[in-house]
Design goal:
By secondary structure, the protein is an alpha/beta fold. It is 39% helix and 14% strand. It has one domain: Rossmann fold (3-Layer(aba) Sandwich). Helix 3 runs parallel beside helix 4.
Amino acid sequence: MEEYPEQRLKDKVILITGAGSGIGKASAIRMAKEGAKIIVNDIDQEKIDEVVNIIKGFGGEAFGYRADVTKKEEVVAMVEAAHEKYGRIDVLFANAGIADYAKFVRMKESFWDHMFEVNTKGVFLVTQAVVKKMLKYKVPDDQLRGKIIITSSRAGKDGQEELSAYSASKAALIQLKTALAKELGPKRITVNAICPGTILTPIYGKDVTRENIAGIDGKVALNIKQGVGDPEDVAGVVAFLASKDSDFITGQAINVCGGTIFH
């Protein structure tokens, strides 16, 4: 816990979907080290248990809940369970998602549908369930009711070859973020998105290495990492967006991509 003495997130309750690996896992660990109580969601119970044990191992607080974000009844049950345990959710990090490649002319309809079901519908379901609760919170007039952070992608801004379904599903989240920031701002709920570039995570496959994904999209970052970031690079931005330091930021889609795009 000494690593982050400011404890910017002390006692904040944060629900993270897709927290079993990659960006979600790194963010869960980072924010727990900053004092947050983490609800670790994934569809893989073993991965949930691993992250919960890591957090508890350094003295943090975590609560695991297995749920499929594409199933409304499971999402609602998860949000209810979080409120039964903690009484509130201060921050939602809607991070669960998938990625896969397919040439557009050969793409099956089921491939397209599944990409949107997980990446877009999943965010819709969990965000709706959490916001319904947040809107009921009684807070002082000078404080926020809650924060929503959504994982989009650089591909949502700059569509990638053979990633048309993924790019489109992530682009939809950027517009969802904008619409919700406008709709929920008067209710004192902020909504932002992160747009990671190529990050060393299992989303590229279980045997992924930095070398075999470097330059995967033909772009080279303008920093020392040469196009491939680590989950911890993104986790730091997520922790900032979850903290009070970002209270005056909403409706933004923040690139975390080493300078591979500038819009």
